């Protein structure tokens, strides 16, 4: 046997003892057993828990799934509600986005015994411009809203009403004589910043008084009213029968002016002998009290404005400061006092007529197949004049589209010589 080397001499005694035991103590032919050396200095790692076998994790996962399902259900409900709201807005035409469908081709109707007068280029092409008898035979004018799609270009209204015998709610008798009124212009009354449509309003003038309206407009253009004067019959104004292009533009500017428009329109409609009317058709269900409050606010606002102007001028007296004006305003309020006449459903017609002496007659026409009903009369012409000015003059009018349309209509009148808008061969 070789003597032990230096390497063996340095090996630990414990290792040598284990080798001798494995060599001499193992049974012959038996496979050697694998051994692992374990140390007491190394910390044993704990096996991680299986999340699928953890009851706490399972409950949390079920709660998360339930929350996800609730979120999906709420999202689906929100989508359904938004879709329903959009459909409702479109169907109700809240913002007035729907326009009328394509216009039907209009053919000229030649009436027996009538002389046709061709207007200048562009006259009558806009549906808001006045329809001249015999020009195109149009019967309906597009309003621009699908709720009340059209307005008649010509209506028939009573020529005179006996307010002494008629009571509020009475039907206009069939024996009452009527006459034709021609459409000047129309527009939509909207409220709030959302432009919610309330009603369609159109201004009409009696055909027999179109020449009178022409003369007043021409005189106004030739001799505009000053600060202290109305329409004055000067030599030029009396002889003028129509307006040239520059005069028409000047007149249009006066009629649309936010400051001078009040006195210009006031001079045109104040005098006797001019019968006009406003036709009002709600685009949604409303009531007389709501309509009345809007008119009363406009009347009192304009009256207070005129009173303030008169107060600023020494010795001036406003025409709206006396007690009779307050009495007339109360009479106007009583026309729409409610009761059986409280509701005004969508599509029914309200008519405000200004007679030859400025008296205001209110008619209600709920059923086209039945006669209109008389609501009452206010004899003081100041009331009807202020109601008319609410639609025609000033910075803030009840319907800007109606004001623009009416001005376009009267521009069509002054383009032609006085007395030639409606003319028949006798």
TrEMBL record:
<keyword id="KW-0812">Transmembrane</keyword>
<keyword id="KW-0472">Membrane</keyword>
<dbReference type="GO" id="GO:0016872">
    <property type="term" value="F:intramolecular lyase activity"/>
</dbReference>
<keyword id="KW-0413">Isomerase</keyword>
<keyword id="KW-1133">Transmembrane helix</keyword>
<feature type="transmembrane region" description="Helical">
    <location>
        <begin position="71"/>
        <end position="90"/>
    </location>
</feature>
<dbReference type="InterPro" id="IPR016088">
    <property type="entry name" value="Chalcone_isomerase_3-sand"/>
</dbReference>
<dbReference type="Pfam" id="PF16035">
    <property type="entry name" value="Chalcone_2"/>
</dbReference>
<dbReference type="InterPro" id="IPR016087">
    <property type="entry name" value="Chalcone_isomerase"/>
</dbReference>
<dbReference type="InterPro" id="IPR036298">
    <property type="entry name" value="Chalcone_isomerase_sf"/>
</dbReference>
<feature type="domain" description="Chalcone isomerase">
    <location>
        <begin position="179"/>
        <end position="407"/>
    </location>
</feature>
<protein>
    <submittedName>
        <fullName>Chalcone-flavanone isomerase-domain-containing protein</fullName>
    </submittedName>
</protein>
